[in-house]
Amino acid sequence: MGILLRLLVAAGLAADAYVHWQFAPDMKGSQGGSIDGEVLFQAQAIVAGLVAVLVLVLANRVTYAIAFLVAASAVGALLLYYYVDVGRLGPLPAMHEPVWYMEKTISLVGEGIAALAALVGFFTVRSGARHDSGAHASRV
């Protein structure tokens, strides 16, 4: 089950990274905020891609927790900006977008799968199993 979870997390984050990278130029000059929408989308794409690779290479509670935070925050942001016009949030630009399209669906599904798989991975991954050779020898 471990490799399946790793692949689900990585694939979901890869979909998230791809969609954010593709749409980053469209977010250039978003209204307000000290962080440009293009930079924000590029940062999300890079972080999602790096975390996808990290989970593939090293799956432990820490990497699954990081993957969960990246994916779940992306789901939260997507749904918030779809349903609510919150305007500018601190340094973040106003990004309300009450329309739905295929790429947004791909991103949401990928992020959701990654978040759920990372959560399962977090609770099911074995922490570094320690072997006590003395205890093993006494049982033999």
From TrEMBL:
The chain crosses the membrane at residues 41-59, 66-84, 104-125. It comes from the Bacteria. Keywords: Membrane, Transmembrane, Transmembrane helix. This is Uncharacterized protein. It comes from Actinomadura rudentiformis.
